[in-house]
Amino acid sequence: MIEHKFNDDAAVIAFVRRHTRLFAEDAVLKVSEIGDGNINFVYRVAEPGGASVIVKQALPYVRIIGEGWPLSLDRNRIEAEALVLEAEHAGDWVPEVYHYEQPLAAIIMQDVGDHQNLRHALIARRHLPQLAEHLGLFMARTLFHTSDMRLDAHQKKDLVKRFINPDLCKITEDLFFIDPFCDHERNAINPPLLPVAQALWQDDLLKAEVAELKYAFLNRAEALLHGDLHSGSIFVTENSTKVIDPEFAYFGPIGFDVGSLIGNLLLNWCGQHRLAGDEAEREAWRDWLLVQLEKLWHHFSQEFGRLMREDTRDPSLQNEHWQQRRLLHIWHDSLGFAGTELIRRTIGLAHVADLDMIEDEQQRAQAEAMALHLGRELIMERTRISSMEGLVDLICQLND
Amino acid sequence: MIEHKFNDDAAVIAFVRRHTRLFAEDAVLKVSEIGDGNINFVYRVAEPGGASVIVKQALPYVRIIGEGWPLSLDRNRIEAEALVLEAEHAGDWVPEVYHYEQPLAAIIMQDVGDHQNLRHALIARRHLPQLAEHLGLFMARTLFHTSDMRLDAHQKKDLVKRFINPDLCKITEDLFFIDPFCDHERNAINPPLLPVAQALWQDDLLKAEVAELKYAFLNRAEALLHGDLHSGSIFVTENSTKVIDPEFAYFGPIGFDVGSLIGNLLLNWCGQHRLAGDEAEREAWRDWLLVQLEKLWHHFSQEFGRLMREDTRDPSLQNEHWQQRRLLHIWHDSLGFAGTELIRRTIGLAHVADLDMIEDEQQRAQAEAMALHLGRELIMERTRISSMEGLVDLICQLND
């Protein structure tokens, strides 16, 4: 029995009416529970044919695992505060927060239900002309404005303290950096793929690089990350992109967000190797994905570079040589974290539909082996891949 | 008017009597204010011929600058908590804390008045056979045990939060990484040295490396640092070493503590080039200093390496390749931070007696130029100096 949980639809509606003025007093409201995530309840409150709003409520444990894996409700505060902070710098690309109520661990926010989940859109090979630009700018602006380049010493440290997020970080620390690299009971491995996974578990040099990435995740409080920037956290239309669910937000290495996104585009690229549909169409789509990858990095790096040049406050960080090198470090980190995302989504606990929807086990294993191989290459070679061209070359070699 | 400040000696004595049982009820106690630091009052309470104790009280501003540079009293809590934490792992080498009282911003602690300040000991060329071992072990144990190698995810983040220390970090951020690399009003420069300083201010490649070190200082929460580990924070006898004053403690890059200490030994090495006394004796002393440098790194790296191998809890950080690489990173960082210490102590606000006691302005400028040159080399070449031998070679070349 969770005391703060809404008992029924009427409680959800009353909560929304108390804290917003979105609905007329005589409007008849309908509540549906739409949460497909793992650790929260998500309600849509809608007037049929009219306005609608989302209520997200956190429970004190991981929903799919149960009370055996407790999770602090503080993540709900962190999500609300992160959304508000992101909106300051990238308001076009996050849902608006209308209200946050700590005792209920509940947020009322804009409904983006007219958007499609990006993972489903990518699986359906839906061309999204503005996606890469929106996400590149979203990351550049949210990350730059919460970094030491922009914030003064006190502001930054106050924010670091507010966003210390041990429960959610622990999930990433385990699921990204431990489980997939050993024979862990939480892993879920397609049987034909087992030998490939076993080879990874023996690979001490790979594990040394993964340790370095984990150490960066644990230690490097560079900027306020979204912290869970996979395709399932993004909703899209032709002209609009909304990034939701920043409950994993904390101060970490900038490349973690960028790498998560790169990794998710590449997971789709691997999956499309064997997903259903016409082969020529799938191959054309995979080429489109690589173009999006280039555009994503282009928009991110151009905007982040511009912000560093124009808006860095700390005089000692205004040095141009250093700023160029910083961008290169972010690139290398991004490739490494993209690699860990590819691997953990293939053999770890939380899979992605981009691979899981390949029905035939053997065909799925081919796409999965590609994801593992690419993941390993990205981690091992990240500091030797100096540009996007180098990355695309590596990817194309893998495809041959 | 500072409300919490002790009004008179009787108030200090009453405070000590209230919170310790060190003195008999009829003991006649004497108070002397012995603070030679810049930001606190330090009282010795002693029974003549008997026991004694130290009371350290923080004021809400920098003592030598005045109310124009306010400083949070929270540093006093941080100092008390850091001393207690250090004592858990390196109790031989820190003064014992008897009491901390938040409303008074005052700590009662062990008196190490039978020890000599290490800076004075080094200037006097006093051989200290156990110094390098004590300090190497002190750093290895305090730093390892507060790192992610040892602490679990929640413990580490709780501590990071407790030791967020913006006011004191800001002092370092400015005095180490900004002032000495530009024509700042806070700098204090020996007139004949001005052209050398001006050349530094034009050196964009150097400033790029300093930016990288500052970024590490700002972002990398690797372990609980002492944060101000210079010769003046260390007290010594032939067989005993006590590290005091951790009010700058915060979670930062491990190499910052190690580098501060290396930098201070090298400042003395530079000063002894031109300090008073017999030249042969000074040169022999400088050789002894280089041996101490080797021993310091030897003891630190052996102990830190042993702790990583034997006591790392996180399975993903138990990788041997990674642990070796981590130690090399700490070495490179240490050299870089040693370089910034050399430079900021020579032309920044806070000088050291190792150089300032050279009476003749021209002679002093020679030793100071050596410190600046060595500092620059350490910063620029740090990732190319792969061992202690490489460092000693570099230093000896400089001396020719």
UniProtKB/TrEMBL annotation, chains A, B:
Annotated organism of origin: Marinobacterium sediminicola
Superkingdom of source: Bacteria
Protein name (database record): S-methyl-5-thioribose kinase
Taxonomic lineage of the native organism: Bacteria, Pseudomonadati, Pseudomonadota, Gammaproteobacteria, Oceanospirillales
PANTHER family tied to this protein: METHYLTHIORIBOSE KINASE
Complex formation: Homodimer.
E.C. designation(s): 2.7.1.100
Every Aminoglycoside phosphotransferase domain range: 31-286
Gene3D superfamilies: 3.90.1200.10, Phosphorylase Kinase, domain 1
